[in-house]
Specification:
The complex is a heterodimer of chains A (154) and B (508). Chain A is flat and about 60 Å long. Chain A has 4 helices and no strands. By secondary structure, chain A is mostly helical. In chain B, 75% of the residues lie in helices and 1% in strands. The termini of chain B are far apart. Chain B is built from 22 helices and 2 strands. The chains are: A mainly alpha (154), B mainly alpha (508). The interface between A and B is large, with 63 and 65 residues.
């Protein structure tokens, strides 16, 4: 018997819920209240573990025919997650304005690769307009504070 | 009630409320018209703009997005055959056919005016039902609230399409998110896994924004950049129409309008089923009750009226559950719930009595958003189609930047941005593994309330049978069991049908 996609998902949830359940056993009860901090988490994690085990068993028992997956651009998805991850890491270092400019430029160039000087001008303009417009609208007009960069100082 | 509504309407007529309501409605229409951008995504984008506004301004903008978005999807559905939102899918069946037959204006305006009338019928229900329902909810103790939240969660988990187990797991995972941080009784740190920003627990808004925005954007990217939608047909189309004739076409079918709007309201009240189910169900009902069911799908006005009136009436139903019980009917009202929390307002049964001007201001915003929606579409329906040509390469990075602002501005810490990214990855993974997002989000929103009410109930009286023996609580628990049993039966039936179809395929 081989595990399919649902089986692996169920196993992942089962493992995570059992690990967290184990951690709740270390929570100390308070003498002031009859119910400790681990009471509800144990119920939730127990139910989650049982459901995940149910999913794994159902997957093992079901004789499913493998369905062909439609072709997908997973490389682009991974790349966009990576670029967004870098943006999130850069925000406290470079500040909102610089990091946003760099992020929008990178994402725009990846999604629609520029050709020639005109293409790069488009990328720069989109990035500049997004960073400037969001900064002015939120920080200046709506008084919403945006992240400052520890390296850049603004 | 009428006095308060009158005061709410008078208050809303001030420019400082009309402006956000107008821009919210416009943003909703544009977001709704963009295929691949849902109302949830639009309201997530609009959310950070409401942080600097007063509560009613923010809620007026969001109500506008909800109303506008519910109607906006029909523009592309009718003129291009591309439903802008899932709730406009049923509109394409007859709307696009009618447009192709040379009556694009009639098809479009039948949809717009049906949205208008359906929305107003939903509004009547919203205004009439919220206060009495909230009064009933005020009688609830912790047993009843616990059972009510369990009912909501089990209904959502059971009614989602696809696997029942996955729906239940998604709901349970949502509750798991709420146990990370600190316990609600003594504030003791628990399950923070050594991560500093988890000490205060996890706000549901960055979770919601991350899960929905990334799930949608990354799924779109997966498919690759689609061809730019040609709006040539729409640009060439003549949208001129005699409005009184169109209105009469709708109002001369009062039973259809009332029945399909009622279906919309009913589906809206049930958590997380959504406008797409409402419009499909209403379309199906209209077809079954019609004297000429064979005309459905060939460009009949009944199909457009059924789909669009139920779709907008659904908004009124969804707002009832959030305002009376504090339970979001869908992701859009979940964001509205978050916006209320940001302004320090607790939704739930006390909301309407403690914040009457705000509640009636919201009712007024809901009502006024409808004529604004009609006016905006009157002026800009043709122009809206040009919006569909905005390239994804520009749209998606901008949306994600706005998501970052929305998460960061909640309490000006990067912690919420890290949560946004983490749950963005989780949301995309959930979609890829076929786990529904709606029960997960409801679990995140209701998880701590379930815990608080469970503990309150046990601390008041440790007898666990009270959950069953107290009449309202017992009925609600019975409802949970019934909804679970119904979902199980429905899924088994679907599996049997699928197996029969597979056998049938094999024979041929």
């Amino acid at each position: 018997m081989r595990l399919g996609r649902d089986g692996w998902a169920g196993l992942a949830v089962l493992t995570a819920s059992l690990v967290l359940f184990g951690l709740t056993l270390g929570l100390k009860d308070s003498p002031l209240v009859p119910i400790g901090p681990g009471f509800y988490p144990r119920i939730v994690l127990g139910v989650t573990a049982v459901l995940a085990a149910w999913l794994v068993v159902t997957e093992l028992l079901a004789a499913k025919r493998a369905r062909p997956m439609p072709p997908a651009h997973y490389g682009m998805v991974a790349l966009m997650f990576a670029v967004f991850g870098l943006y999130v890491l850069a925000l406290p270092l470079l500040g909102f304005r610089v990091a946003t400019f760099a992020y929008v430029a990178a994402a725009n160039a990846l999604l629609d690769p520029p050709r020639g000087a005109r293409g790069w001008t488009r990328v720069a303009l989109v990035a500049l307009l997004t960073a400037a417009a969001t900064y002015v609208i939120f920080e200046r007009y709506l008084t919403v504070l945006l992240p400052r960069g520890s390296w850049t100082g603004f | 009630m009428f006095e308060l509504l009158g005061a709410g309407l008078a208050n809303l007529m001030q420019l400082k409320y009309l402006v956000p309501l107008f821009f919210g409605t416009l943003a909703g229409i544009i977001g709704g018209a963009l295929p691949g951008v849902t109302i949830t995504m639009t309201i997530i984008v609009v959310l950070p703009f409401t942080f600097g506004l007063d509560p009613l301004q923010g809620l007026a903008a969001m109500t506008g997005v909800y109303v506008g978005g519910s109607a906006g999807g029909l523009v592309t559905a009718v003129l291009l055959g591309l439903p802008g939102t899932p709730s406009a899918i049923a509109t394409t069946f007859d709307g696009h056919v009618m447009a192709k037959k040379g009556e694009p204006g009639r098809a479009l305006w039948l949809g717009i005016w049906a949205s208008f009338f359906g929305g107003l019928i939903g509004g009547v229900f919203l205004i009439a039902a919220t206060e009495p329902l909230a009064r009933i909810a005020l009688e609830f103790g912790p047993w009843e609230f616990f059972s009510l939240f369990i009912l909501a969660l089990s209904m959502v988990a059971g009614l989602v399409e696809g696997s029942l187990i996955k729906g239940l797991i998604a709901g349970a995972l949502g509750c798991v998110v709420t146990i990370l941080g600190s316990d609600p009784v003594m504030g003791q740190e628990r399950l923070t896994l050594g991560v500093p920003f988890l000490r205060g627990g996890i706000d549901f808004l960055p979770v919601l924004i991350g899960v929905f925005a990334f799930a949608q954007i990354m799924t779109e990217l997966e498919r690759g950049a689609g061809p730019q939608r040609a709006a040539a047909l729409a640009r060439a189309a003549n949208l001129t129409v005699r409005h009184l004739r169109v209105i009469w076409e709708i109002l001369s079918r009062p039973f259809l309008l009332l029945w399909t709007s009622f279906i919309g309201v009913l589906i809206g009240v049930l958590p997380a089923i959504g406008g797409s189910a409402a419009s499909m169900m209403a379309y199906d009902q209209a077809k079954k009750l019609s004297k000429h069911p064979e005309r459905f799908g060939t460009g009949t006005p009944e199909g457009i009226v059924a789909s669009e009136s139920s779709n907008n009436a659904n908004v009124g139903g969804s707002l009832v559950t959030i305002m009376a019980f504090g339970i979001p009917g869908d992701a859009v009202t979940a964001v509205m719930l978050g916006a209320l929390t940001i302004h320090g307002i607790q939704s739930g049964p006390l909301f309407i009595s403690q914040n009457a001007p705000l509640a009636y201001g919201m009712f007024a915003a809901y009502l006024v958003a409808h004529p604004i929606m009609v006016a905006a579409l009157w002026v800009g329906s043709r122009w809206m189609l040009r919006v569909t040509t905005v390239p994804q390469a520009v749209l998606f990075p901008v949306v994600l930047v706005l998501c970052v602002i929305g998460a960061y501005a909640l309490n000006n810490t990067m912690g919420n941005v890290y949560i946004l990214l983490s749950f963005g990855v989780l949301g995309y993974a959930m979609v890829k593994f076929g786990f529904p997002l709606a029960p997960f989000i409801l679990g995140v929103i209701l998880g701590d309330q379930i815990e608080i009410n469970l503990i309150r109930a046990i601390m008041t009286d440790p007898n666990p049978w009270l959950f069953l023996t107290r009449p309202i609580s017992g009925v609600l628990i019975a409802g949970s069991v019934a909804s679970f049993a119904f979902a199980l039966w429905q899924h088994r039936r679907q599996q049997r049908r699928a197996a029969q179809n597979a056998d049938g395929d094999a024979d041929y």
